[in-house]
Amino acid sequence: MKPYVRPISAGWWLHRMPYLRFMLREFSAVFIAAYVIIFLVMILRISQGQAAYEAFRADLQSPLAILFHVVALLFALLHTISWFQLTPKAMAVWKGEERVPPAMLIIPNYVAWVVLSGVVAWIVLGG
Amino acid sequence: MANKTSQPTIRLEILRYDPEKDSAPRYQSYEVPFQEEWVVLDAINHIKDQIDGTLTHRWSCRMGVCGSCGMMVNGVAKLGCSAFLRDYYPNPIRVEPLAHFPIIRDLVVQLDGFMAKLQSVQPWIIRKEEKPVEQGEYLQSPAQHARYKDFSMCINCLLCYAACPVTELEPHFLGPAAIALAQRYNLDSRDEGREIRQETVSSHIGIWQCTLVGECSVVCPKHVDPAGAIQQAKLASTMDWYKELLWPWGGKR
User: Fold this and answer.
1) Last residue of one domain, picked from the residues B63, B82, B109
2) H or E element that contains A98
3) Domain shared by B117 and B101, yes or no
4) Which of A55, B61, B159, B167 could form a disulfide with B66 if both were Cys (CB 3.0 to 4.6 A apart)?
5) Residue A11 in contact with partner chain B when CB distance is under 8 A
């Protein structure tokens, strides 16, 4: 009498919404990596002089490049927000017998995000 | 009072497997009386007692304490005693044995693999040196107790294993409950066994297999938060690594 082992379904992550959300969160890393590569190419082009950089900028204006950036932005937001929300899972901070509420660990992430984005915007926009 | 013929009913589609006759499991449908206060376990007990005595399932306390009646209800890991029929009525309910475990018969799954994993993390208080009984008990403050209390509420119902896709894709993965229980003892002020447990917990079959799907904590009927336990164990292991890197002559704690 052998116990029956159910086969693994390749589409297990399509069967329930939480699994699909998890896969999208993991998949977001692909877009983050692709964006980083484009960013590195941009730095390379800058080092090659103004003509190379202008050509690169012209390439970025193609509909395909714009579409990629919009999709990458959405995945970057999904990636950032979902990991911010998960911070309290990894960090158990205690005050005596009470655990510090999750929101107290999540909010500083958003504050740091806004402050750093502000600094970057200030530098980029020529502050 | 409604007479018997007008009694509303609800259909249960139960995955059946008889190792002596079946080469693969099959679904069998049962029409059971719909009662507002019935849970899925009541319906299954009704089937067993009144309709089909061959149906096999595990159950005991009927009140979410024993952890015996874990099953998949419409694809979600639940205790049969906590899943009310009224939350599904009038739609049929699909009942299957806990996912990711081998099926012994009908709704009964094989737990041997979990038992071995649980034992491998040594979920008991380990002391480097036991103090003699005459020196009294190991005292613990309420704050020290609070650190691990939630992780100690596990009833080994294994809903977390059925909800975790990693336990299916990586069969050697220790899994949510075993790691949560290891963490429960690691956080106990009376325990000194973390370093011993780390050999298993931080190994290739341990915490690093977890990709934080997080469903183990969602389905846990005791709010143990195994996903939290695993991430906190990852953080502690990472801190160990940095401490060793920056302070190699400091020796292991």
Assistant:
1) B109
2) strand A98-99
3) no
4) B61
5) no
Task: Give yes or no for residue A5 having a pLDDT over 90.
Answer: yes
Q: What CATH class has A1-90? A: mainly alpha
Chain segment B107-121, per-residue pLDDT in tens: 999 999 999 999 999
**CATH value at residue B82:** 3.10.20.30
Ramachandran area for residue B189 (φ above 0: left; ψ -120 to 50: alpha; else beta): alpha
**Which member of A2, A6, A92 has the closest CB to residue B19?**
A2
Q: What share of chain A in percent tops pLDDT 90?
A: 94
What is the C-alpha separation between B188 and B139, in angstroms, rounded? 11
Distance from CA of A123 to the nearest CA of B (A): 33
Tell me which residue range forms the domain holding B163. 112-250
Size of interface A-B (CB pairs under 8 A): 72
Which ipTM value was assigned to this complex? 0.87
Residues B101 and B118 in one domain: no
Beta strands in chain B (DSSP E): 9-16, 26-33, 70-73, 76-79, 93-96, 103-105, 108-109
Domain ranges of chain A: 1-90, 93-127
Q: In percent, how much of chain B has pLDDT > 90?
A: 92
Overall domain count for chain B: 2
pTM here is 0.92
Chain A interface includes B102 (CB < 8 A): yes
Count of C-beta atoms within a 10 Å radius of residue B174: 27
Farthest-apart Cα atoms in chain B, separation:
81
